[in-house]
């Protein structure tokens, strides 16, 4: 079996097993909710330009995961109000059609490579996942 055919087969098999054991089978509306995955990355050495460039390289590779509908790689804005968090190095925000697509992203080989090849650069990550309607009324 070719690599691409094998990968597609495994993704489809994973999706089928996820759906069969998922609470989504009991709550089909959740499969239609937009899923937003927001990660704040904190470099071990926040003043190291090479580490920052390397992590940015990795995030750009990660953005190629096909399940991602939209991605934004950001740096802290220059806004300064007491409620704004600005101590992270990169913000990674991506949108998925639903939670199933996000689960496929989590197990995608590109995501696995990203964690394997770049995790040594950060001291911590903070993740905010949210769901909501695809359209606001």
Automatic annotation (TrEMBL):
Limits of the Stress-response A/B barrel domain: 35-130
InterPro entries: Dabb, Dimeric_a/b-barrel, TAT_signal
One Pfam family hit: Dabb
The name this protein goes by in its record: Dabb family protein
């Amino acid at each position: 079996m070719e690599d691409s055919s094998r990968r597609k087969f495994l993704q489809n098999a994973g999706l089928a097993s996820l759906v069969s054991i998922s609470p989504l089978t009991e709550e089909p509306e959740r499969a239609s909710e937009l899923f937003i995955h927001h990660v704040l990355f904190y470099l071990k050495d926040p003043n190291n330009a090479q580490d920052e460039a390397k992590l940015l390289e990795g995030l750009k590779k990660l953005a190629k995961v096909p399940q991602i509908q939209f991605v934004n790689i950001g740096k802290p804005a220059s806004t300064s109000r007491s409620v704004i968090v600005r101590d992270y190095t990169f913000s990674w925000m991506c949108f998925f059609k639903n939670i199933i697509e996000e689960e496929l992203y989590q197990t995608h080989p590109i995501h696995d490579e990203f964690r394997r090849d770049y995790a040594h650069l950060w001291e911590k990550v903070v993740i905010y996942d949210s769901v909501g309607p695809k359209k606001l009324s």
